[in-house]
Write a structure and sequence with these properties.
alpha+beta; about 80 residues; about 45% helix; 3 helices; globular
Length: about 80
Amino acid sequence: MNIEAPARRTAIVKRSLTIAGHRTSVSLEEAFWRRLKALATARRRSLGALIAEIDAARDGANLSSAIRVYVLENASQ
């Protein structure tokens, strides 16, 4: 039996923001942006504040990758 999953669009959305006083842009799939916003709301933080926390805690990883890992690690919350 050969079952193929339907093709899904994984549009990358690029957003600009200020972290620690400098402008940067972050590119993530829309699903990650939605979940990140939900996590920020649940923690009563702005999206920018949550991203700044993720940025401060990353160990040299690309910011977009660090955000994806954060979202995955907090998927059940």
